[in-house]
Amino acid sequence: MRLLLLLLAGGGCAFSQPFTGGFRGGIPFTDFLSAAESGSVSYSTVTNRYILGVTAELRLPFGLGVELDAMYRHLNYASNSGTTGVTTVFTSSSTTANAWEFPLLAKYRFPSKLVRPYVDAGVAWDTLQGLSQTVQKVVAGGTTTTTSSSPAELNQTTTMGFVTGVGVDVHALVVHISPEIRYTRWGAKHFLDTSGLLSSNQNQAEFLVGITF
Fold first, then answer.
1. Radius of gyration of the chain (CA)
2. pLDDT tens digits, residue range 133-152?
3. Which of 41, 180, 198, 203 is found 20 to 30 A from 117 (Cα to Cα)?
4. DSSP string of 37-86?
């Protein structure tokens, strides 16, 4: 009987506000892409030091919860190459894309009043949208420009990974502020150049802050 009363009390507290939602953003510790140069071929990339999105959570009894995020980041890279011989050809390209990440996490909050440490773990999907590459070739006869949504370096547009994180949930009036360090190991690379000079990183680490209501 006492156990039943405890279960009902815990369920009533947890489900007084079963759903929370808000925003999550932060700073990546790792680069989305790794670029290098060798001989007459070079790749370069600039990591955008932000990741932004929204978050929603179903809060369960006993500190448990299920969280779903939708996170956005922008990526770009460029390449330059040249060949000499009977005809000299210079080739340059510029590629941009939007990466959307969807982590689905199980969460456990440790008992506390205002500041509750937590751990989470789960799976994530990352997909590329708006992929565009512009290639410009300069030869003796002139310049040609082409645009494609399937660059040669593209390995696959969607990949799945495993996520784990640790953070604290600070309850301030009606707002929850949740700083977190999160790590993701992706199962495959989005980009993989045949020369090995460009590839997307399968290890992803980031510092995130969530604000939920």
1. 23
2. 999 999 987 999 999 999 99
3. 203
4. EETTEEEEE---S-EEEEEEEEE-GGGEEEEEEEEEEEEEEEEEEEE-SS
